Amino acid sequence: MVMAKDEAFEIMEKVLGLSKADETEVLLSAHRSALTRFANSIIHQNVATKDATVNVRAVFGKKIGVAEVNKTDTASLREVVARAGAIARVQKPNKDFKALPKGGQIKEVDNYSKRTAASTPEQRAEAVRRVVAVAKEAGVKAFGALGASTHVVAVMNSRGAQAYDDMTSSRLTVTAIATDGERKGYGWAEDAHRDIGRLRPEVQAERASHKARESLGARALEPGEYPVVLEPPAVADIVTTLGFTTFGALEYQEGRSYIVNRLGKRIVAEEFSLWDDGLAPGGFPMAFDFEGVPKRRVELIADGIAQGLVYDSYTAGREEGKESTGHALPAPNPFGPFPMNMFLESGDATMEEMIEDTRRGVYVTRFHYTNTIDPTKTLWTGMTRDGTFLVEDGEVKAAVRNLRFTDGIVDALAAGGVVGKEVQDLPFSDYFPAGGTSAPMVKLNRFRFTGSTE
Amino acid sequence: MRDLAEAALAAGTKAGANYCDVRFVTRRGSYIQVKNDNVEAVTRGSSQGFGVRALVAGAWGFSSSSTVTKAEVKAVAAEAVRIARASAAVQEKGAHLAPEKAYEDRHRSQWKRDPFDVPIEEQLALLMDAQRALAGDATIKVRTASSSALHESKVFASSEGSYIEQEILQSGGGIQAVAIEEGEVEQRSYPTASGGDYRLAGWEFVEGLDLVGHAPQVAKEAKALLRAKKCPPGRTTLVLDTNQMALQTHESCGHPTELDRVLGMEASYAGTSFMTPDKLRKLRYGSKAINIVADATVPGGLGTFGYDDEGVKAQRVQLIREGIFVGYQSSREAAQDFGGRSSGGMRADGWNHIPLIRMTNINLEPGDWTLEEMIRDTKEGIFMTTNKSWSIDDLRLNFQFATEIGWEIHNGEVGEMLRYPTYTGITHEFWGSCDAVGRKAEAHLWGIPNCGKGEPGQTARVGHRTSPARFQGVRVGVA
To answer: pLDDT of B195-241, one tens digit each?
Structure first.
């Protein structure tokens, strides 16, 4: 345990006691994190850190100031409270600010593992050794990272919100590179769990190694529209970008979201349903947001129809009758609330069925460097990476060079497809335990590739 | 601080490190954002801590802590050695460091007005005026002005005898207007997007941007874009403004010449590089007009410092000479494999990360054209400015950029405004098509404060002094 609940609450109560603001919020974040990185089948970077940060939001009327310090002694707390207060006093009032949230009953979530919290550099090195051994047997080089972290997040404010969570996470990523003369093949696999003992180094190493060998000698494929079979990491990339650019209340209120004037309307094919649930185990849960508000499940898309948005207290205060759904980021947050635990509903199809049902298409392991060109049209671009294959007549025929897509993602989802039963839970971060996307395999009927690489 | 540094190095050496270094870092950060007459964010943060890097039998370990006491310093140094020993379990030939002189020195950047001393009211007033100056037309729905500053003081000490104290201050800001009408959304930013421009300087740099004076033109262009013609697809002559040249240089020359990427150290995350060692001094990367350097000594750059984070003195390194790929950005470890010296590019994001090979200031050396001459000399083409979107593959070959705005060029004159200006290409083909680079007077030193790399993720603040440039036969209008 990085910081016990009693100690965290004592620090936060001290902050509230020191503040003379009308309203005060304190966000305490403490962590101990480690990450072992390997490349060319050796460990080349191996790091650990520990820190504790106190973030204070002071409110005078509608004037808000935020200050942060990474010390918890009384003198530092006194200074950071004074700094936040001084900033707030010289502010202009924010007319849209209503009040800090009152908080609510926090549910217990299962997101802690003693084994992860107690993990050692020797144990991480041993897991990497097992990855490297499989890669060596397969005749490929292994690259990747194994991270383990323990985080405490606690929130308290002067209006009664109180929250504390102690979380762990671990994540193993493996990139395998096969070399045959001038030719190179790439493969990827990843595994994440709150319990480091549940990671499967050999399985991931074998998956990545197999794909790397299969990727050798990739040939050019003419860009154009193809059906695509997407592995969960590729689906998660799409879903995460869609969630961040489309389903936050701030983008919506400012008119920058695709679903402006589309709530309650069909935006994608009926086989797709998407929701955010910060309490469900698969989504790397944290029971409350960074304002101490309990997380609520929010339906984003149901059977293809746009359903709702996620709110923090600020954006909720700007709409009549709205309440925070528990999606605030740490203050000050000019980016607005984000859906941090998204789930795309799984279906019945297996990967084999999706491939068998494809006359000519592209199989994608994952995307790289996805970026938005126009969020209001969900127009994005990005590259495929670490295993892209041509599917012909129901079989994976050949590795192809990485392809660039430029497409309206909602348009691609609207053209329909098949949702797979195989689901993978993919975290956003190696270091922070909460937040991620749970994604099944998906086949899209059409996807627009606009270029390819050498 | 010297006694704590000595304690760390002694503890690391005693525990078995063949080499160790320690960095004590204190950072102060400031961020202000105003939007639509509201103050959205005013925050000031501070972070202090230290990190110890240890090399044991060719294997690395690093540990760090925010508790800066002698007992903790010793414990963290011992932990770094323990981690290094664990790393040694999965090694081959082991890491070695290229030789480097030990330095005892101090370095401090220059500024006139420390933003942490300038009253917040004054800073807010400037930003409020700037976003207010964006108002006036009903289509302008989101008006934003922001500024930020970073003050960092750090001490580096190594078991080889270096003891270096450095202090830097960086400041920057910008404005953005978002125009919305009938489901169409367009944005314009000044001086560039993603928060504006940054410099190794104080609040005087933000004052000098004249955000208020530029706001009306920014708003006017945002509105005009709503009804502008879409960039037509095809191949054409492309003239890029200095701000887009900064990102083009960053993504397609800065990252692929980082030697750690080339050697596979980033393969699992950001990728590798097509600029492999067998291509050094052979690859025609660009036309003869292309000369690119990594220069940590250029005054005012976000990548300017006295020494990097493994104690190597700041320097200027040629990466591309007359279009030929001639050099890498490197570290002591990576340089050792090439029998050379480090380029001084190891930089860490704060106290709690290891240094990685990061860009300093990756600068395109000036040519002899003016922007006006480039356009006058172009029969048919497009001029694009201000980055909006960027994407490049994991070998840094296939890129695609979108800018906020473009204009057609017809018979040597700027014509109709274009929305959705996008262009795409293959790095060496694109740079190979460059036939004009702007002269020194046209160059601008841009600051990019958000370059991501590494696991755990690190953010570097880097500079690019770039001129406008012209490229032939570029594929545009992809979106």
So the answer is: 999 999 999 999 999 999 999 999 999 999 999 999 999 999 999 99
Alpha carbon A316 to chain centroid, angstroms: 23
Residue B122 sits at the chain A interface (C-beta within 8 Å) = no
* Helix, strand or coil, per DSSP, at residue A84: helix
Contact, B380 vs B409, CB < 8 A? yes
Task: Give the Cα separation of B461 and B198 in Å (integer).
Answer: 9
In degrees and rounded to multiples of 5, residue A283 shows phi and psi of -95, 20
Given a contact cutoff of 8 angstroms between Cβ atoms, the answer to whether A381 and B420 are in contact is: no
Q: Which of B31, B40, B141 is most worth mutating to test chain A (most A CB atoms within 10 A of its CB)?
A: B40
Contact B91 A43 (CB under 8 A): yes
Kindly state the average pLDDT of the residues A423-450. 93
In angstroms, the separation between the Cα of residue A442 and the nearest Cα of chain B is 23
Q: How many CB pairs under 8 A join A and B?
A: 267
pTM of the model: 0.96
* Cβ distance of A451 and B398 shorter than 8 Å: yes
Best CA proximity match to B308, nearest among B293, B296, B295, B294: B296
Exposed e or buried b per residue across A413-440, where buried means at least 16 C-beta atoms within 10 angstroms of its C-beta: bbebbbbbeebbbbbbbbbbbbbbbbbb
Alpha-carbon distance of B356 to A33, in angstroms, equals 19
B59 CB neighbours in chain A (<8 A) are 43, 46
How far from each other are the two terminal CA atoms of chain A, in whole angstroms?
Answer: 49
| Tens-place pLDDT, residues A236-292 | 999 999 999 999 999 999 999 999 999 999 999 999 999 999 999 877 999 999 999
> What separation in angstroms does the CA of B298 have from each of A328, B301, B355?
41, 6, 21
